[in-house]
Design goal:
alpha+beta, two-stranded antiparallel sheet, 327 residues, 12 helices, 2 domains, 7-stranded mixed beta sheet, ph1033 like fold
C-alpha cells in the first residue's frame, strides 16, 4: 500500500463525487510533469488524501490502476490548456465529516515533508503546481492522527463496504466506444476499410495479417500457433489514426495473457528488446503468466517502425513513472 496526496481545488466536486482522479499527461508545453506522471504508479488499495481549499476534505481508496481516458466533460472550463487525453484512476472517496486544515498542524507535519515533491510548503500553504504526489508512511501516519478515528477507519477499510460499486475503467470503455462509433459512421471510408479498422480493434482481420508479415511468434512465450496469438497494438487503437490502426509495424503477436499485460501497461519493451515490468504489476500473477519479474529478459530487437510505436507505448501506456525510485 502507498499513500498519495491530491490537490483538487478546481476539480474536487467532480472527482470526489465521481469517484476518480484525472490528470493530463504533460504540461501545456508538453514537458513532463512528475505530479501527473505519478498517476502511473497508483495501485488498487492505495490511500488518497484529498486536499481542497486548504483542508483535507476526503479520503479515497484506489480501485484501479491508471488508464488512459479523455478529459471528463464535467470539468468544463477547468484546465483550458490541458490535453484532451490523460490519466484516470478509479477511487472510492468518502467525504470527511470533520475536515482538517494541515496549516494548523505544521509543528508536527513540517519536519516530515520531503525535500522533493512535497505536497505543502513549510508554512502549510498548498502548492498550486502539485496535483498528485506520494507520501511517506510517517507523513501519512501524522495526517491520519490529525484527522482522527474517522480517517483510521477509512484507511483500515472499515467503511469501504458503504460505497456503491464502481464501473471500473468506464472512461476507457466510453472513449473506445466513441472512437468505434466515429469509424462506423464515417461514410467517407469504404465499407471494407471500415470493417478492417473495426476488426483491428481486437487484433484481428487485416491488421493481424499485416502484423504476421513482421512477427512470427509471441515475443515472450515463443508460441507460434496463429490461433493462440493476438495482434496487439503498440500504439493503442484508440490513440491511432486509421492508417496506424492497420500498420503491421504497430503490432506484436502475443498470447492472450501477455497481450493483456502489454495492453494495460503492466509490461513494455525497450528498443533493444529488454522487457520492462511495471512496478505496480502483481508479481505472483506475472509468475503464473510465465514472467519472472526479477529476471532480465530480452525478446529480440525491433524494426525502426516498431521502435517508434513502442516509444509511444512507454510514454503513454506503461505504468511506470520515471520520477519515482526505479522509474
Amino acid at each position: 500500500m502507498h499513500f498519495w496526496w491530491v490537490n483538487q481545488n478546481q476539480t474536487y466536486q467532480h472527482e470526489v463525487r465521481g469517484n476518480y482522479l484525472w490528470s493530463p499527461k504533460r504540461k501545456s508545453n508538453q514537458a513532463s510533469n512528475p505530479f501527473y506522471d505519478f498517476m502511473r504508479e497508483v495501485s488498487p488499495g492505495d490511500v488518497v488524501f484529498s486536499f481542497s481549499n486548504t483542508f483535507i476534505q476526503a479520503i479515497g481508496i484506489a480501485a484501479s490502476h491508471a488508464y488512459e481516458a479523455p478529459k471528463p466533460p464535467e470539468f468544463g472550463l477547468a484546465g483550458p490548456n490541458w490535453d484532451n487525453i490523460g490519466w484516470r484512476v478509479d477511487v472510492r472517496f468518502v467525504e470527511l465529516r470533520l475536515p482538517a486544515k494541515p496549516s494548523a498542524h505544521m509543528a508536527v507535519l513540517a519536519p516530515l515533508l520531503p525535500d522533493r515533491y512535497s505536497p505543502l510548503l513549510p508554512n502549510g500553504n498548498g502548492l498550486q503546481s502539485v496535483y498528485l504526489t506520494r507520501l511517506s508512511e510517517a507523513l501519512a501516519g501524522a495526517l491520519i492522527d490529525m484527522l482522527g478515528a474517522e480517517a483510521r477507519d477509512l484507511v483500515k477499510g472499515y467503511r469501504v463496504a458503504e460505497q456503491r460499486p464502481l464501473s471500473l475503467a468506464i472512461g476507457l470503455a466510453e472513449w473506445e466506444e466513441h472512437e468505434l462509433g466515429k469509424v462506423t459512421a464515417d461514410e467517407a471510408i469504404p465499407e471494407t476499410d471500415r470493417l478492417a479498422i473495426v476488426l483491428a480493434r481486437r487484433g484481428q482481420g487485416l491488421f493481424k495479417q499485416n502484423v504476421m508479415r513482421v512477427e512470427r511468434a509471441c515475443r515472450v512465450t515463443r508460441v507460434t500457433r496463429e490461433e493462440h496469438l493476438r495482434a496487439s497494438h503498440c500504439k493503442p487503437w484508440r490513440d491511432s489514426n486509421n492508417q496506424e490502426r492497420l500498420d503491421g509495424e504497430n503490432g506484436l503477436l502475443l498470447t492472450p495473457t501477455i497481450d493483456h499485460l502489454f495492453d494495460r501497461g503492466f509490461i513494455g519493451f525497450e528498443d533493444g528488446g529488454g522487457l520492462i515490468v511495471s512496478p505496480v504489476a502483481h508479481a505472483e500473477s506475472l509468475r503464473r503468466m510465465g514472467i519472472e519479474p526479477t529476471k532480465a529478459l530480452n525478446v529480440g530487437s525491433f524494426s525502426s517502425g516498431q521502435r517508434k510505436y513502442l516509444e509511444f507505448h512507454r510514454e503513454n501506456v506503461l505504468l511506470k513513472s520515471k520520477f519515482l525510485d526505479g522509474g
